[in-house]
Backbone:
């Protein structure tokens, strides 16, 4: 049994290292984007449109991953696009976690009418098709980074609320919160001091998964042309533009797609790896 | 009696959810900036024209008033008139529903087949490299959402090696003798296999993209349940009776292991239907989701409302059906 356990642990370790490694690279690439890319992300050169990446014949020196139809550097746009993706992941993910977990904690621990109201809201939210809901919200809020973050929070808080509610309910049924109250704690302070730390590992895992989802939502919205603006580099926007010229210049779509794929995969694998790390049986 | 009472409770709660959805959608879309009436009229329209048309669509009344007019219409089966298409919303929406239903069901079937095969193979080959490979593939499929799978499939089988259609529902030049919008189903009934092949080759890529994440979930959970069942005494008994491994897995273990997966598939199926919105857009597939995005872009308020309500109805109906099937299949609930 011990053998199997160490084997599983090794697999988890590798997964965390690989996904964590890519995310670290991405953070540095986003931070140092101006130093890493010889060209600006908006710099156009119409004479250098659709130049192939460096290993293909006819490549233009200095444009390592080629250029798009307007002669903009694909590498620079991917690096600057990483900034948008990471900001959305961090900010939208954290606020969603905060709002959803708070509501879930209140519903699961306080029960009663609070639970009835929040559970009913979750039911209603689950009946909305999420992509359509987000597109609708962007139409209401207008395009822009803040709108995207608000839309993600409004749509995805239920992911946290549902799971945290169930966990808080299970924790609340145990003996220790009751003991804490006998020892003189109020219900609210029991919830924050006693229940929350036990639910926190779950929240951290969900947060990592949510960051990946946020990156995808941003990509979908910029793909439907409702994201930031058509000029600012976003991976979804680049994919959408590249798709129209895929037969003439595959690199415009393929490189941002690879960046998006690896990032989403990494967030998800990192979250799954953390989940196993936190699992007391495997630990 | 117990079942009847819980069924009634479920129906009431479903109705409450739908009312909630209707209220939220109605108020959200009323604050959408952009005047749908102004978008309909030519640039030279007079103020009277605008006022007349605004009144025609009831947009001059207060929002709560508009809601009650709309709600009483809905109860009589009138979902209003689309501003862009100038046809009843119900006709438009029901015309597109079959396309989305066929796509979703085809995706579900693919997911069940892929996930089922993965789980059975993984159980049969447990402890080997094959199982490890299936686990890795499952993990990948699960981590990446349908939108990305769709883009990858478009690149692989639409561009690099173009074997499938990646746009539309059917080749436009074909003559369609259909009376319903269930193209896939009707081409089979009419024995028009030439059309059927064309329709399937249009649907396969979007359906596969929708199916991959669900297949991974099915594969993972079913394999887990199968593994647990394989340790039970009755399975060992079957094995000592001399049945082969295939018989033991499929005939003995599977019927007992399938119930948790079935419940999960129900919930996940609603997520899959929600995913059709962006997948239809990507593949220019003429379904509800694609129409919904156009409706948002064109600020066609009555149409947006109708589509969102229909999606909500679809989701709640699927959940209801799953719960009922579960109650019927689970002996403990059946005899309660």
Residues:
């Amino acid at each position: 049994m011990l053998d199997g356990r160490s084997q599983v642990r090794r697999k988890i370790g590798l997964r965390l290292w690989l996904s964590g490694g890519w995310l670290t690279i991405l953070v540095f690439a986003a931070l140092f984007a101006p130093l890493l890319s010889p060209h600006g992300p908006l710099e156009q050169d119409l004479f250098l449109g659709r130049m192939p990446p460096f290993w293909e014949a006819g490549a233009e020196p200095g444009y390592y991953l080629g250029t798009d139809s307007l002669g903009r550097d694909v590498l620079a746009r991917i690096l600057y696009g990483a900034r948008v993706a990471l900001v959305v992941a961090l900010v939208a993910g954290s606020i969603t976690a905060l709002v959803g977990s708070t509501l879930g904690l209140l519903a699961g621990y306080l029960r009663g009418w609070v639970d009835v109201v929040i559970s009913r809201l979750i039911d209603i939210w689950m009946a909305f098709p999420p992509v359509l809901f987000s597109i609708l919200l962007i139409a209401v809020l207008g395009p822009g980074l803040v709108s995207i973050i608000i839309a993600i929070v409004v749509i995805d808080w239920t992911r946290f609320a549902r799971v945290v509610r169930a966990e808080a309910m299970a924790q609340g049924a145990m003996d220790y919160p009751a003991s804490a109250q006998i020892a003189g704690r109020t219900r609210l302070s029991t919830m924050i001091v006693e229940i929350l730390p036990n639910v926190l590992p779950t929240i951290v895992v969900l947060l990592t998964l949510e960051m990946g989802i946020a990156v995808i939502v941003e990509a979908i919205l910029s793909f439907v042309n409702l994201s930031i603006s058509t000029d600012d580099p976003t991976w979804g926007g680049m994919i959408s533009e590249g798709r129209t010229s895929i037969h003439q210049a595959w690199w415009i779509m393929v490189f941002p797609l690879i960046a998006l794929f690896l990032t989403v995969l990494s967030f998800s694998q990192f979250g799954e790896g953390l989940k196993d790390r936190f699992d007391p049986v495997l630990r | 009696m117990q079942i009847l009472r819980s069924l009634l409770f479920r129906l009431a709660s479903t109705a409450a959810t739908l009312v909630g959805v209707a209220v939220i959608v109605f108020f959200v879309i009323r604050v959408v900036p952009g005047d749908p009436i102004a978008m309909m009229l030519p640039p030279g329209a007079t103020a009277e024209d605008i006022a007349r048309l605004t009144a025609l669509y009831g947009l001059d009344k207060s929002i709560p008033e508009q809601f009650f007019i709309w709600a009483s219409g809905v109860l009589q089966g009138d979902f209003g008139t689309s501003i862009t298409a100038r046809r009843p919303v119900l006709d438009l929406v029901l015309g597109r529903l079959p396309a989305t239903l066929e796509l979703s069901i085809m995706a579900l079937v693919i997911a069940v087949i892929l996930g089922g095969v993965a789980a059975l193979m993984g159980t049969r080959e447990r402890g080997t490299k094959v199982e490890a490979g299936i686990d890795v593939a499952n993990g990948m499929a699960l981590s990446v959402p349908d939108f990305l799978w769709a883009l990858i499939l478009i690149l692989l089988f639409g561009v690099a090696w173009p074997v499938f259609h990646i746009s539309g529902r059917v080749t436009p030049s074909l003559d369609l003798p259909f009376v319903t919008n269930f193209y896939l189903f009707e081409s089979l009934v009419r024995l028009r296999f030439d059309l059927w092949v064309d329709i399937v080759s249009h649907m396969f890529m979007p359906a596969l993209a929708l199916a991959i994440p669900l297949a991974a979930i099915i594969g993972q959970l079913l394999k887990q349940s199968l593994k647990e069942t394989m340790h039970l005494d009755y399975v060992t008994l079957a094995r000592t009776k001399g049945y082969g491994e295939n018989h033991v897995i499929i005939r003995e273990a599977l019927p007992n292991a399938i119930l948790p997966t079935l419940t999960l598939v129900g919930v996940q199926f609603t997520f899959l239907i929600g995913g059709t919105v962006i997948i239809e857009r990507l593949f220019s597939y003429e379904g509800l989701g694609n129409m919904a995005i156009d409706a948002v872009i064109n600020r066609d308020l009555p149409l947006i409302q109708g589509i969102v309500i229909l999606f909500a109805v679809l989701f709640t109906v699927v959940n209801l059906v799953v719960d009922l099937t579960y109650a019927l299949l689970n002996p403990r609930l059946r005899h309660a």
In short: Residues 74-110 of chain A form the longest helix (37 residues). Chain A touches chain B at residues 120-121, 123-124, 126-133, 135-137, 139-140, 142, 212-213, 216, 219-220, 223-224, 239, 243, 246-247, 250, 253-254, 257, 260-261, 264-265, 268-269, 272 (CB under 8 Å).
